[in-house]
Every structure is written in structure tokens, then in C-alpha cells.
Write a structure and sequence with these properties.
The protein is of the alpha/beta class. Helices cover about 45% and strands about 15% of the residues. Strand 5 (about 125-135), helix 6 (about 155-175) and strand 6 form a beta-alpha-beta unit. The longest helix is centred in the N-terminal third of the chain and has 23 residues, at about 95-115. Bound molecules: nicotinamide-adenine-dinucleotide and thymidine-5'-diphosphate. This is dTDP-glucose 4,6-dehydratase.
Length: about 350
């Protein structure tokens, strides 16, 4: 099985590539332009595997994408390349529009022309998995869950750009017959997570004795999924999902942000009892503009139709994650020193 992965040097992409190369034994071509969020160090464990290749290229570059399809000849495309951080999208949306919308268009259209020329057997087996987020559905109140049929209602430039790309992906199926499948997943966490997102930022700030900035009152709810569970779900959907369908991915792990931060502090208290309660570092800061109140996923379609189920609970996953950061300073120290040191992003006067 030949799988072209875009964004394989990112957080979820690298977990997926490690799973495909190491456990599934697929032939993998990882196409990634290496933005600030792309990091080949996350792929050290597979970089010299005979079934792994890397191509540094921008998905918006049609000519390079056509060459990659023509020479690698994928059976499956798993498209993860994106700008992914809500706060950066508030600061400036141009890269989000370019990569998430224009880049997805470029990839879909390249895939369509490549797919059109395949023989009948390969044509019917081909799949294009477009990897998306539950943030396209907008914000929930205290009750209810996102279902695949929930209307789109995105709040941030990031989620609006992902919503646009989801619509393009489904349109390429309805109009051209390209066998597209779309997945919408809740918040991921785990090893190799770039320390701009809530969980790794809180772990590293707490370790360094810095403030833990909780937006607003910390009552916003996210539904957390361990990244390796997501990687397994993505392969399940790409290999067995029905063309034209959407699948929600999540593990029923809703938590308020403030409770997540307290849990991280408690784990660190257990390791470094001499450093005092880490929760003293928690600081309430100005809220994020357009901050969605609650996300919660109903993944029963994926569970009943394709037999996937999350293996980690939040309690087991967060424990593993905190310990991974404690043991892998070689990975995060260069990022904190040279790429992003944790300053607040995405607030502006007037909000
Ligand atoms: P990430 O920011 O960690 O990684 C994105 C990767 O894409 C990076 O390696 C980057 O170099 C690459 N990339 C960016 N622009 C590119 C371009 N123009 N051409 C080629 N490569 C490019 O993101 P992530 O958290 O791993 O998310 C991966 C995908 O999953 C995204 O599509 C995101 O929307 C989606 N998603 C993320 C989450 C989450 O919690 N992080 C949840 C659900 C869905
Ligand atoms: P984040 O990790 O940015 O993911 P997303 O915005 O895609 O859900 O944020 C998760 C939640 O944590 C979100 O409600 C915003 C909040 N948050 C903070 O309170 N403080 C922070 O420093 C960050 C980065 C996020």
C-alpha cells in the first residue's frame, strides 16, 4: 500500500507517519514544506526505514504536487498539511487562507487528474482522506454533541479556513467522483506537540516556573484525544471509510481547561514535590477573541461502522504526555529557544 501523507512533519502527521511506517508497513511519502510547526526530529525513529521517503514541498505548488503523484503513484492520500493554531490565525490569517484553502484545492485537483488516469481496479480502490477538525461546527452550549450532520458554524479564521477546505473536498467527490473521505477530530494531545498549544505550553511553563496563562475563566471545554488514537483512526478511515462520507473522531474526554491545567500541575507536583504546588503559577489572562465555549464529539459512526475505539482515557494519556516531555528535553528545548518561547499570541486592542 502506497500512502502519500501531507504535513507528516507536524504533530499529528508525524504520529501518523510513525504508525504507517512502523506498524502498518505501508510505503510512505511524506510531503511537507517545514513551516515553524514542521520538525523532522519528530520522525527520527523512522527516517532511515526503507519504506519511508521525505519530500520538502509546498502543497500550493501544483507542478511539484503533480511530479510527486506521478513518481510515487499513491493508492491513498492522507492530507494533513495545514496552518493549525487558532491564536496565530487571529494574529494574521493569510497563511491559513493560502495553505488550508488554496493548498487543499491544489492537492484535490492534482489528485483528481492523477486518479482519472488510473486503471479501473486502482481507480475504485483509491482514497483521498481530508483531515479536518471539529472546530468547523462552532461552539456548543452545556448540552449536546457534534454529529456528522451538525451544520457548519466556524468562529475563528482557522476554523473558517478548515470549513472551506472540507466543502472543497466534498465538492470534489460530488462533482468529479474523486473518492474523498473527510474526518473531523477533536483536540489532540500527546508527544511531539508543538509548545504553542494548551497542554505542551502548560507543561513547559510549569517546568520552568513561568505563569500558566488560562484564557478567561478557564471554563471552556475541549474534548481531548490522545494523538496515537487519532493516527489509528485516520488509517482506519482512509482504508475502510466510504467515499463521500464524513467521520467524527473523538474519545469522550471532555474537560474544562482549568481542570486540564490543574491535572498537569498535580502530575508535576508528584514528580517535583520540592517545587511547591505548581498550581500557584495559574494566571487568568484576557480571553481569546471569538473563543468557542465547548466542543464535544459523537464518534459513534466511526465506532459502529469501522470498529475504531480510543484506547487511552484522558487520565492515562495525560500522564504519558507529561512524562514524555520530562524525558525528551532534546526535542522541545531547541523549539523553546529558537522557534517560539511561549509569549501570548492573538490578542489585540479593542477586544
Ligand atoms: P501542525 O501545525 O503540527 O503541523 C502542520 C504540518 O503541515 C507542519 O509539518 C507544516 O510544516 C506542514 N505544512 C504547513 N503548510 C504547508 C504547506 N503549504 N505545504 C506543505 N506542508 C505544510 O498541525 P497538526 O496539529 O499536526 O494538525 C494536522 C492536521 O490535523 C491539520 O489539518 C489540522 O487542521 C487537523 N486537526 C488538528 C487537531 C489538533 O488538535 N491539533 C485536531 C483535529 C484536526
Ligand atoms: P489550543 O490548544 O490553542 O486549541 P484550540 O484552540 O484549537 O482548541 O487551546 C485549547 C484551549 O485552551 C482553548 O479553549 C484555549 C485555551 N488556552 C488557554 O487557556 N491558554 C493558552 O495559553 C492556550 C494556548 C490555550
Amino acid at each position: 500500500m502506497r500512502i502519500l501523507v501531507t504535513g507528516g512533519a507536524g504533530f499529528i502527521g508525524s504520529a501518523l507517519v510513525r504508525h504507517l511506517v512502523g506498524e502498518i508497513g505501508a510505503e510512505v511519502l511524506n510531503v511537507d514544506t517545514l513551516t515553524y510547526a514542521g520538525n523532522l526530529a519528530s520522525l527520527k525513529s523512522v527516517e532511515s526505514a526503507p519504506n519511508y521517503q521525505f519530500l520538502r514541498a509546498d502543497i500550493c505548488d501544483r507542478a511539484r504536487m503533480q511530479e510527486a503523484f506521478a513518481s510515487f503513484r499513491p493508492d491513498i492520500v492522507m492530507h494533513l498539511a495545514a496552518e493549525s493554531h487558532v491564536d496565530r490565525s487571529i494574529l494574521g490569517a493569510a497563511d491559513f487562507i493560502q495553505t488550508n484553502i488554496v493548498g487543499t484545492f491544489s492537492l484535490l485537483d492534482t489528485a483528481r487528474h492523477y486518479w482519472d488516469e488510473l486503471d479501473a481496479r486502482r481507480k475504485s480502490a483509491f482514497r483521498f482522506l481530508h483531515v479536518s477538525t471539529d472546530e468547523v461546527y462552532g461552539s456548543l452550549g452545556d448540552e449536546g454533541l457534534f454529529e456528522e450532520t451538525t451544520p457548519y458554524d466556524p468562529s475563528s479564521p482557522y476554523s473558517a479556513s478548515k470549513a472551506a477546505s472540507d466543502h472543497l473536498a466534498i465538492a470534489w467527490h460530488r462533482t468529479y467522483g474523486l473518492p474523498v473521505v473527510v474526518s473531523n477530530c477533536s483536540n489532540n494531545y500527546g508527544p511531539f506537540h508543538f509548545p504553542e498549544k494548551l497542554i505542551p505550553l502548560m507543561i513547559l511553563n510549569a517546568l520552568e516556573g513561568k505563569p500558566l496563562p488560562v484564557y478567561g475563566n478557564g471554563a471552556n471545554v475541549r474534548d481531548w484525544l490522545y494523538v496515537e488514537d487519532h493516527a489509528r483512526a485516520l488509517f482506519t478511515i482512509a482504508s475502510r471509510g466510504r467515499p463521500g462520507e464524513k467521520y467524527n473522531v473523538g474519545g469522550r474526554n471532555e474537560r474544562r481547561n482549568i481542570d486540564v491545567v490543574h491535572r498537569i500541575c498535580a502530575i508535576l507536583d508528584g514528580v517535583y514535590s520540592d517545587r511547591g504546588p505548581h498550581a500557584r503559577l495559574i494566571t487568568n489572562v484576557t480571553d481569546r477573541p471569538g473563543h468557542d465555549a465547548r466542543y464535544a464529539i459523537d464518534a459513534s459512526k466511526l465506532e459502529s461502522e469501522l470498529g475504531w475505539k480510543a484506547q487511552e482515557t484522558f487520565e492515562t494519556g495525560i500522564e504519558k504526555t507529561v512524562h514524555w516531555y520530562l524525558e525528551n528535553e532534546w526535542w522541545w528545548r531547541p523549539l523553546r529557544e529558537n522557534v517560539y518561547s511561549g509569549e501570548r499570541l492573538g490578542v489585540f486592542k479593542g477586544r
